[in-house]
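#help-structures
NK: newbie question, is this the right format to request a structure? protein is Amidase family protein
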Amino acid sequence: MTQQDTLWRLGAAETAQRAASGEITAEAAIGAAIARMNAVNPALNAVVEDLSAEAMERARALDKARAEGAAPGPLFGVPVTIKINVDQAGHATSNGVLALKDYLAPADAPLVENLQKAGAVVIGRTNTPEFSFRADTDNPIFGRTHNPWGAHISAGGSSGGAGAAVMAGIGALAHGNDIGGSLRFPAAANGAVTVKPGLGRVPAWNPSQKAERGMLSQAMSVQGLIVREAADLHAGMPTMIAPDPRDPFHVPLPWRGAPLVGPIPVAFTKATYGFDLHPEVSAALDTARDALNDAGYQVEEIEPPLLKECALDGYRALLGETSALLGPDIAAHGSETVQAIFEEYFRQFPVFEGTELLKMMAKRTYYARQWSLFTERYPLIITPFLPQPFFAPDRDTEGAEGVQEVLGAALWSYAMNFVGLPAGSVPARLADLPKGPQPINIQIVGRRWREDLVVDAMAAIEARVGRMCDVLWQRMN
């Protein structure tokens, strides 16, 4: 293989280490990632704004500064992608909405600025569904993002472009965000690894915004990364959490917390609350449990508190706020498809309104307290993410049954947004199913502010299972 054939395969940690040592140049690393993007993106439609020219210019400038004695940043020469719902100066923050396709950002969002300060290079911007409010990725501006595993699986959403891109080899770090599962759905769909950070971990703000977001949107939405291997979260997230005064509620804690004494207790559950648990998902959970036990964790089967109530109250509250604040924009600017999906959301999850909504926003603290007490005893929890293998494209357009499979069954996803706890997604099995092979991800929930513990546990599972990208690339190439 030539250098260009191999460099795109490197993770963020290894790319940065080799580039900083002078073994490779930033220009070579970025050039290899762009070549890979040119080769595979036409079939995937994951990257919808190609920034190759400015990326190569920036890579050469980084190499020149390095040669003149500048210290390389911790992500020196690492190719990254940014989701199109976050501001990047001079580029459209369209959020998949036709009316916003020319809505140019006046400045960088904090995470974009922090990544570039650390030496990362943005090679493209990735696709999202309209309003970033589906677990599938399609919109009237750019069309559908496809899963590199095949047409039988949705690419997930709303960070579907990010998940498909990073697993196909387009960049080592893919930015995404998550208000009800938008980092974890694409990770599960594509066999990637992610951690949804806890509330306040990553500074968030779009300079282009004209009004502040609703309180629940602020409380439940977080920014993060989708990667191919757990180690790259340890490499990339310390940069993501760097402080920025434009987010006044950012929590300035270090990435690594204090070591825990003795074997770490881990709660384990297969509870799916009325939804059928597929044998392949059950087997993936068993693999995760066994991997952590063998790695020295102390795993105990026990059901966490109030999950179903917390999830449904949280999602109905979020939809109540969404209906009030975003509803007019969806009605005015959304496609017929997304309008129909939201109508079904509101039927399946009757929204809280008025005083009832205010009471539920207050009750969020009660749920968070119960989970805080539980994670004091169990700093980590192994849970299902979805009870069934990942769904097909457009499943959420298929009425009540489709919305129930996509979102109704995702109780473990949006509950963690409501209480603000970190939650990771990692593949624990490759299922050979009638429509084709697909990865099966499980979820690991963590104690507040301890994303590092979640990533360590995912690394232990990955050590047992292997990286899904290696299997995927054999199928693609």
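mod (FA): yep, format's fine, and the tokens are attached above. The chain has a mean pLDDT of 97.
NK: thank you!
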